[in-house]
Description:
Belongs to the GroES chaperonin family. By secondary structure, the protein is mostly beta strands. It has strands at residues 9-14, 37-43, 47-49, 52-54, 63-66, 72-76, 79-85, 89-93. Helix content is 0%, strand content 42%. The strands form 2 sheets. The protein has a 6-stranded antiparallel beta sheet, with no helix packed on it. It has a two-stranded antiparallel ribbon with strand order 3-4.
Amino acid sequence: MQIKPLADRVVIKTVEAEETTKSGIILAGSAKEKPQVAVVLAVGPGGMVDGKEVEMLVKVGDKVLTSKYSGTEVKVDGEECTIVRQSDILAIVEE
């Protein structure tokens, strides 16, 4: 199954948080924060949203930072994904 987001929506998949610190300490599940870095899987076409023209600035494959509790979580072919509005994306991560 493939998801094609509408308007200014973006499908993202959260990147797993590292389980150890830089000094080698292994973190317990409760000590980990919800990761905010995600990879873009699909991008809507943009266009008119709420009476304003929206140009899509992200593309498939981009790593992005998102608001902590934004979006709607969905399961596609057994994988957890999140659908967010482009405005919920805070930044594109460049490495």
